[in-house]
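Replying to the earlier thread about multi-chain prediction with a worked example.

Input:
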Amino acid sequence: RRRIRVLLVEDEEIHRVVARAVLRAAGVEADEAENGAEAVRRVRERVGGAGAGAYDLILTDKQMPIMDGHEATRQIRAMGVTTTIVAVSSDSLPSDVQAFIAAGADDFTPKVHAGPSNPPDQSCFTPE
Amino acid sequence: MAAPMLNQPNSLLANMFAAGLLDDQFQELQMLQEGSAPDFIVKVVTLFCEDGERIIGEIAKLLDKPCVDYDKVGGFVRQLKGSSASIGALRVKNSCIQFHQCCQEKSKDGCVNSLDSVRNDFYDLCSMFKLHASAGPAGAGLPKQ
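Result:
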């Protein structure tokens, strides 16, 4: 069974540490990017000629320095990448959700809060 | 005479839950530690307390200025709200929600009062974490003073 390839995009270390532990509890080791620009670069590298293939899932925060989650999502989609992108943000007004979906995200989940008794829903993506 | 309850780490944590300082999210983190790195809780609590102290300091500086940038203040409050929600710091999170409201209303007095509430709740919590770490043999993996 192939390992799921996940990219976690989050600027704040505390959220990365928690997300890393949640993903590990679900049997997933993720690559990490601290802002949208780094996420775009990592995605581009993976789909490039010498890349290891597209990610199965990208989890992205909204507000980040250099490039935010909306713009990163737009740029990833503009590359033709169809990887499932799930926005994870503490800003969960309908307008926030709509903005992400309009940028090309597949789903949105509030940042609060997954854990062992409430694991992240993996049904939204299917690895090849 | 029985040892004071406060010397028992589990009682301290139970008190923190009962006092509304912590919510279910902290229990989720404790469950994650069981399967994750043994210093997971230490790392998360340390990050929260260090980041929170820095953020509160930045907010105080911004509110000290004659012309307050409420967007910047709101940004820092949002950041602290997010990290307090991640760790299960219920009272700090709720104080941040109130604070954010004052930022949106551009109320300086409201923001100053809210900063006091956030600061008190934050330092109450971090002090309790340190006390818990000092009380037990392993301190349930919490950072020591």
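Strands of chain A lie at 6-9, 30-33, 57-60, 84-89, 107-110.

Feel free to reuse this layout for your own posts.
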